[in-house]
Amino acid sequence: xxxxxxxxxxxxxxxxxxxxxxxxxxxxxxxxxxxxxxxxxxxxxxxxxxxxxxxxxxxxxxxxxxxxxxxxxxxxxxxxxxxxxxxxxxxxxxxxxxxxxxxxxxxxxxxxxxxxxxxxxxxxxxxxxxxxxxxxxxxxxxxxxxxxxxxxxxxxxxxxxxxxxxxxxxxxxxxxxxxxxxxxxxxxxxxxxxxxxxxxxxxxxxxxxxxxxxxxxxxxxxxxxxxxxxxxxxxxxxxxxxxxxxxxxxxxxxxxxxxxxxxxxxxxxxxxxxxxxxxxxxxxxxxxxxxxxxxxxxxxxxxxxxxxxxxxxxxxxxxxxxxxxxxxxxxxxxxxxxxxxxxxxxxxxxxxxxxxxxxxxxxx
Length: 364
Hints:
The protein is mostly helical. The chain has helices at residues 30-49, 57-65, 71-80, 89-116, 133-148, 154-164, 177-182, 184-194, 199-203, 207-225, 231-235, 251-272, 281-285, 288-304, 314-332, 334-339, 341-344, 358-363.
């Protein structure tokens, strides 16, 4: 696996804005672009069928089986291309421009669309709607990483915080506090991958059959027990409930197991995704950020108007799944990305002081 250069962010993960090209920058790695496309497609497909999957066992099982290849994969890929370097003004400005502003922009668009569909107008600031929580968490993860890497046992400490947090009522959806800290160990693991950890697993021959077995095992387990796995185990959004076989006292063991399985399955996905450039797939994978931001705005009116709920027959359900794949492909295409770039990468000149402005910047 290629290591990321210390102190420099590489190509971006799904739901992460692409960095501004610089002279001498490394070319995009098709391996990660291919992985982005897989993850982006799964998130769009699962959001497309999300409102009806409880009616069909096979869709619900698919949702459980593919969970690790969506959010946990996003988190670990984000870590791969993050830097623990000093939070200098350039990096802070980049965080504001590429993460904070798109999050607020699309939160406003979401509010306007909800209002147009007949709902009340609600301005979301502290609790961003739908998928936008990830951007708020990403902002925090990149701020926290320079602190985390200074710990003697960063993985142990972040994991202890993640499993212990479920007993603290104050942490929940507000500012995405719960998911930010619960997924922090996976973000750190992703950063370690970017530094070259796990090279033997990702490149050796023996790991390939293990990865295949891991993915197949996830599918079989989901098919057998998907109705027995509460959504609270996977959401990471709320404090623990006594809905585990171990009760409240053992709820932390359930979360620990879920995080460990998620990390293993993401490694399986990375091992199985081709490293070479694939026709169309690699190019579309570079548009993961656009897919992530735009797809809720398209799916929401279809869901609210009851169009998705009309799918009933097997043929209609297959068509719905294919529609999710097609939507991913369209949103990730170059023409769409160029068209919406003012929204996905808005100008921040009106907000940020001129670089190198000194006193003048402070006065303005």
